[in-house]
């Protein structure tokens, strides 16, 4: 009896702990992919025998019980994330890269993006315009804008780049006309003489008017535009826009004539003087002189040279403010570039 009880206590009970389906673990229990203690109900203890599968290290002699899995390197990232969620909630709003531009007075939410407007005006590519804005080189209504996202109204606001205004109103146009001699400085002439409109193509040129006048026999630069404010400033004496002329007179010319014209010549409508007097060329019987003056009185250059005893043989205006006639052919109407328009507007404080 005692021997039977000893056999029962030692090995009579199955290894499976008496669970249904238990029994002595056979060779199939060690096969690849078997899961001890799940489907078969086996309960395995610590393994001290040979490796049961590839990649499992052999337990050391002093090791007791199963070891905890090694922490992987990215655990700190998840701990920080959990801490941030606990502190700020699961849907924390991202901080915007730039503060909102609504606080700027120059911003018009219904307008056009500033860099797009600059690119359309011919300043540079849109990417370069963005860099110019970030560098603080752009002003809108006198306020420096160095943030992207600002919108402006091109019809109501002025934009300056490096101190030069850019024309943002596409309805305004600016032309340079090299007027030949014998052309009247009007759009229509009741006597049927050639006038400015005869050189304009109605299919290409908008309705414009001339800035100032040149007498019939004077040739050279005549500006054409539909910008009324610019016209008023270019012709108003208070802005003192310089005008350059090439004058051909009968020579030789005495040395004191230049000094006399710079100091002032008395005419029937007051004193007139030139800002600059320069001898350009001299040929037998003819002298070419360049004069610069800012007054716009009628036939002022011809009257001044008549007063000093050298009547004008040929007269041409070569420059108005920053706009020069250059090598433009006579009778040609040329559209001013964006840079020329900007310098012209800046010359009269626009």
From TrEMBL:
It comes from the Bacteria. Residues 13-31 have a biased composition (Gly residues). GO terms for molecular function: isomerase activity. Residues 112-176 form the RNA-binding S4 domain. Residues 76-88, 100-109 have a biased composition (Basic and acidic residues). Residues 44-62 have a biased composition (Low complexity). Residues 1-109 are annotated as: Disordered. Keywords: Isomerase, RNA-binding. The keyword Isomerase applies. Its EC number is 5.4.99.-. The keyword Isomerase applies. Belongs to the pseudouridine synthase RsuA family. This is Pseudouridine synthase. It comes from Kocuria carniphila.
């Amino acid at each position: 009896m005692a021997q039977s009880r000893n056999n029962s206590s030692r090995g009579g009970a199955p290894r499976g702990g008496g669970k249904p389906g238990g029994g002595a673990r056979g060779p199939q229990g060690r096969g690849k992919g078997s899961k001890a203690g799940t489907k078969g109900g086996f309960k395995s203890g610590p393994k001290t025998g040979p490796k049961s599968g590839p990649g499992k290290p052999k337990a050391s002699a002093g090791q007791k019980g199963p070891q905890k899995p090694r922490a992987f390197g990215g655990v700190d990232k998840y701990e920080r994330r959990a801490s941030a969620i606990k502190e700020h909630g699961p849907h924390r709003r991202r901080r915007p890269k730039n503060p909102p531009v609504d606080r700027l007075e120059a911003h018009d939410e219904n307008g056009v993006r500033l860099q797009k407007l600059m690119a359309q005006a011919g300043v540079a590519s849109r990417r370069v315009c963005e860099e110019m804005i970030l560098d603080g080189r752009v002003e809108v209504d006198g306020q420096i804008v160095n943030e992207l996202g600002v919108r402006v109204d091109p019809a109501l606001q002025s934009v300056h780049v490096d101190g030069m205004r850019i024309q943002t109103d596409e309805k305004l146009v600016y032309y340079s006309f090299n007027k030949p001699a014998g052309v009247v400085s009007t759009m229509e002439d009741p006597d049927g003489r050639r006038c400015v409109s005869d050189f304009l193509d109605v299919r290409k040129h908008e309705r414009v008017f001339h800035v100032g006048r040149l007498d019939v026999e004077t040739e050279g630069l005549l500006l054409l535009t539909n910008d009324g404010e610019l016209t008023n400033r270019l012709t108003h004496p208070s802005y003192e826009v310089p005008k350059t002329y090439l004058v051909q007179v009968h020579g030789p010319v005495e040395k004191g004539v230049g000094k006399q014209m710079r100091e002032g010549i008395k005419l029937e409508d007051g004193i007139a003087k030139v800002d600059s007097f320069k001898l350009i060329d001299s040929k037998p019987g003819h002298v070419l002189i360049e004069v610069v003056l800012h007054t716009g009185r009628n036939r002022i250059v011809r009257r001044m040279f008549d007063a000093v005893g050298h009547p004008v043989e040929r007269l041409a205006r070569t420059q108005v403010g920053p706009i020069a006639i250059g090598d433009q052919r006579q009778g040609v109407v040329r559209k001013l570039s964006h840079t020329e328009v900007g310098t012209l507007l800046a010359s009269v404080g626009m």
